[in-house]
Write a structure and sequence with these properties.
Elements: H1 3-20, H2 25-40, E1 42-50, E2 56-62, H3 66-72, H4 80-84, E3 92-94, E4 116-123, E5 126-136, H5 144-207, H6 212-238, H7 243-247, H8 250-264, E6 268-273, H9 281-301, E7 306-313, E8 317-324, H10 334-349, E9 353-358, E10 364-371
Parallel strand pairs: 6-7
Antiparallel strand pairs: 1-2, 1-5, 3-4, 4-5, 7-8, 8-10, 9-10
Helix pairs in contact: 1-2, 1-5, 2-5, 5-6, 8-9, 9-10
């Protein structure tokens, strides 16, 4: 085996290992598109996953900056060559993408594409997605050898993507099972305790004017039952700390939460994150819970088209921002005070600071900053 062949084999092996090492669907997709671009030395790469009707459920790119992507505009629809390749399991290799009969157009800010290689990701006859590569960085365009390399990567990518989807499905089923367990615990322990507490309080109220001694004894029981109920609730709540916080950190935990909400709600729920330092368990949980609460409020009240969650590294801090483009509100209105007070109290307990910016008709931003120092 020549040195060139060994180097190529090593690069293929690294790309396959990078793809199969991921568990979340989003991570698998992003790793596939990055590995494909690197492996074939392409300037641009994209990966489209079919959604309902003429939409993409996911469309990821590599080689295009965030600024370029924003300038290009919204996610493309399944038209022209992009759509055709989600229906045909055969690859497409062209010296000029514009020569394809189904090529239509691209937005004004879109980079100029020339040579092109498209490869469907197929599993058991179903097209899970399609890789699109353009502009080989050495002269001559994509070759038959490039096509075979990409076919090999796509075959492994199909397995990794299927496994990731099964893993996430199992996680969702585990969440449902955990909710049922908590409901049982609340009913079996706390609800019964609160029922006894109510009866004892009623007895104390009935006795207070007729037999102060017995009423005082009943009130002692009330205090004991209340303390026991509070302890039961504390134990249950401590068991609710997401496992992802301990393993992957608050950024990964919130991203996975966003992905679930995006599938469940009509507004688009998006995550924009970057690597952030690990926090103490208490601070990570505070960031996660405040993110959950802000998301819940946006989805329930804002009537937004898009809700974005960003987790960013500040100056020796971690910053959470939950932004929506909804109807906004006046933060001073009494109806909003309890929810905001609860989030602010949680932020203070974590040593952080919470700010809420909102104006009727202009959307809302909830911004939390917590120290990164342990």
């Amino acid at each position: 085996m020549s040195g060139c062949d060994r180097e190529e084999l090593r690069e293929v092996s690294e790309a396959v290992l990078a793809v199969t090492a991921r568990l979340s669907v989003r991570d698998v997709l992003q790793t596939i598109v990055a590995a494909a671009r690197r492996l074939l030395d392409a300037r641009y790469a994209a990966l489209g996953v079919p959604g309902p009707e003429d939409t993409f459920a996911e469309f990821l790119t590599d080689g295009i900056s965030d600024e370029q992507w924003k300038a290009i505009g919204p996610m493309p629809h399944r038209h022209g060559l992009l759509g055709a390749m989600l229906l045909d399991p055969e690859p497409v290799r062209l010296a000029d993408v514009r020569s394809h009969p189904k090529f239509g157009w691209w937005p004004a800010a879109h980079p100029e594409l020339a040579d092109f290689l498209g490869m469907p990701i197929v599993q058991d006859g179903a097209i899970l997605g399609t890789l699109f590569l353009a502009n080989k960085q050495v002269p001559g365009g994509f070759t038959a050898a490039d096509e075979e390399l990409l076919r090999l990567l796509a075959a492994h990518a199909a397995i990794a993507l299927t496994n990731a989807r099964l893993y996430e499905r199992n996680r969702e089923l585990s969440v449902v099972a955990e909710r049922n367990r908590i409901a049982r615990e609340l009913h079996d322990a706390v609800a019964q305790k609160l029922f006894s507490l109510r009866l004892t309080a009623d007895a104390a109220a009935a006795l207070v004017t007729r037999d102060a001694g017995r009423a005082a004894a009943e009130l002692v029981t009330v205090r004991r039952l209340a303390a026991e109920a509070a302890e039961e609730l504390r134990a249950i709540v401590e068991g609710l700390r997401p496992a992802d916080l301990a393993g992957d950190g608050v950024g990964a935990a919130l991203r996975k939460h966003v992905e679930v909400l995006d599938r469940a709600h009509r507004p688009a729920v998006r995550f924009a994150g970057e690597p952030v330092p690990r926090l103490t368990p208490e601070r990570e949980e505070a960031v996660y819970r405040i993110g959950q609460e802000a998301l819940h409020n946006a989805l329930r009240h804002a009537e937004a088209g898009t809700v974005t969650v960003a987790v960013l590294a500040g100056d020796r801090s971690v910053v959470l921002e939950v932004t929506d483009d909804g109807r906004g509100f006046d933060p001073g209105t009494p109806s909003r005070q309890y929810g905001l007070a609860s989030m602010r109290e949680r932020a203070r307990a974590a040593g952080g600071r919470l700010r809420v910016r909102s104006t009727p008709g202009a959307g809302t931003t909830v911004r939390l900053e917590v120290p990164a120092d342990a």
